[in-house]
Amino acid sequence: MGLIVAFGGGVPVIKLGRIAGQYAKPRSGDTEKVGDVELPSYRGDNVNGAEFTAAARRPDPQRLIKGYNQAAATLNLIRGFSSGGYGGLNRVSSWNLDFMAKSKEGTHFMDIAKRVDEALSFMSACGIDIDSPTLNTTEFYTSHECLHMDLEQCLTREDSTTGKYYDCSAHYLWCGERTRQLDHAHLEFMRGIGNPIGVKVSDKCTPQDLLTMIRAFNPDNKPGRLTVIVRMGAKKLREHFPVLLQAVKDAGLIVTWQSDPMHGNTETVQGYKTRRFDNVLAEIEAFFDVHDQMGTVPGGIHLEMTGDNVTECIGGGSNVESTDLESRYHTHCDPRLNAEQALEIAFYVAKRLRKRESAALDFRAMQTV
Q1: 7, 66, 96, 303: which sits with the fewest CB atoms below 10 Å from its CB?
Q2: How far is residue 313's CA from residue 302's CA, in Å, rounded to a whole number?
Q3: How far is Cα 320 from Cα 328, in angstroms, rounded to an integer?
Q4: What is the pTM of this model?
Q5: Beta carbons of 298 and 291 less than 8 angstroms apart
Q6: What is the pLDDT of residues 209-247, one digit of tens each?
Q7: How far apart are CA 176 and CA 275, in angstroms?
């Protein structure tokens, strides 16, 4: 996806994965009821089990140790892939597309791969070293919601050279919509760490609350410190997002704007928690449209996805129907886009970024005439 957006959109891409540490889950209710049986809610593998039994739902502190070891193993795997040559541009054509190799998105991806190979051949012919680390390694960062405060505090360390504190559970953490209250512990903890951080906001967030949060998280107004992750649903985003954008713009505050088109579009169909691909795409479209209208910059996309051939979200090029949900519904948490659906999103984002770049070039050309 990063390659598609970078090559197709003509912009540098920072790749973040919600990986190696997100083993806790926010829940709206303390209990879950099935029939006449009521048990504590599943709060993620760091706390208890997803199986609907009294034994599985009992909190077990040993899960924290298992989660830590699992995260360390995942980080080692990521490090091996990103720095061992597998993520190099000269390997793009050999990346395994598995079940979607013959799909429309798979065909488009291989077309990009062919063009990358041609570009590398041209660079080599010009005498450029295509074996340099820049072309043969990639940077991939870890992230998750800063939710489980006891765990996050245990993994926070002081940098002896600067005196700053960093939460070493991930490179980047965000504060969720449920935990971003101005007088609560999550905001207080996160404003004290030196990591780049984010905060999720919905249509319930007022301009004044957003400005207060931004000033608390980023008092020095430092570029790159804070990302505001917008999750509203397409219709509400078109109504409420421009007001927030204008307030931040007028205040002269610096943030990176990111769209989360997943969490504002969740529904239940035939007993399964799911999302409709068309609604996800509509919110991304609205996100870009509003930025175009306001003269501001769309900075990122926050997706929940997997490379597996799952049937958890309805629609898209893979034509998942509501009746298909039960066939490969594997998630214990939120429904994810499968690889084909995710690549379809990536191609759309690349198209919108390329359109913005072309408009900017046209504007600069007009200025020089």
Answers
A1: 96
A2: 16
A3: 10
A4: 0.87
A5: yes
A6: 999 999 999 999 999 999 999 999 989 999 999 999 999
A7: 19
